[in-house]
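Worked example

This section walks through a single chain of length 356. The input is the sequence exactly as stored; nothing has been trimmed or padded.
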Amino acid sequence: MPDPTAEQVPDAVTVRPVRGLPEFAPGDDLAAALATAVPDLADGDVLVVTSKVVSKVEGRLVPVPPGADREEARQRAIAAEAVRVVARRGALSIVQTRQGWVVAAAGIDASNVGRDALVLLPEDADASARRLRDRLRELTGAVVAVVVSDTFGRPWREGLTDVAVGSAGLPALVDHRGAVDAHGNRLETTQVSVVDELAAAADLVKGKLAGVPAAVLRGLRVDPPDPDTGTRPLVRDPGDDLFPVGARDLLPSRSPVSDLVPRPGELDAVAEAFRVAGAALPEFPVVLRYGGEEAGVVDVHLTDAWSVPAALNLGALLAGAIVQLHAGGWATRWEPVGTPGGSSLVGRLWVGSAAP
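Given that input, the structure is written out below as tokens.
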């Protein structure tokens, strides 16, 4: 890893597209095609290649038979590639893949490929990048770095950008933690994802519709890491993830559960769920109490007079709390109680495990 106190800033970096590449198919020699298309490949160059062409030559394709519903095939492929559903709305799924990436539709692509196939992400894009780097050195003698890129969306931002899903010959992260800036401030958290920056820069000359799947960057000063861990450092440790659950698909337990089995800890779980949900409604208090002698029941009381705004706020608060409970593995049933203008008790929340 480079010394964070001795950052190397290049005088200039050039980015140029690799044109003239063929339509690739399983078994094709991608490295040979790139070596022919870039005869002046030199030591220190960074070659950025889209994951789609890597997947094509590696046979990472899902066939779609004639007459079959392509969207159904895509949904089956997403389910097969996903290890965790992070969020879902209609047909759109944000999932975590086996490679660790959190991405829409498991990174499965239906563009720039015939109607008879879907393209999966490479099985191991870091290994793909290493093989491509070694093969290019064998063919050209040049010692280059390789980045395998794919197009991702970003949380809380519109628009797509290319990021790295595989790399070889350069560090994925440049760690500046511990360095001191020009004003004497010690950097505590700064780690720069160099490979993502390179993937995005390369996409400026590749584009989504131009049919140019590769680009060469020249002028960047990078030292090959030892050991070369590829893009693994970019996968965030679950313990450091502030949003580990997201809005998961709650359909299996979204409907009220008629038969619940109580289990210990329900009041603490409900209190925590309301605390998290209430962070968005800090001026809307409720009171939670055990619901009499029956286990697994929590009474929800309003402290303010009943009104239309109170009803709307309560609905938002309940929805958020129930999502939190379901994400934590609890099953719920909400039973409204009382009428406007009556008791402060507005309903009972049953919490537990769904009976077999």
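What to look for: Residues 308-327 form the longest helix (20 residues).
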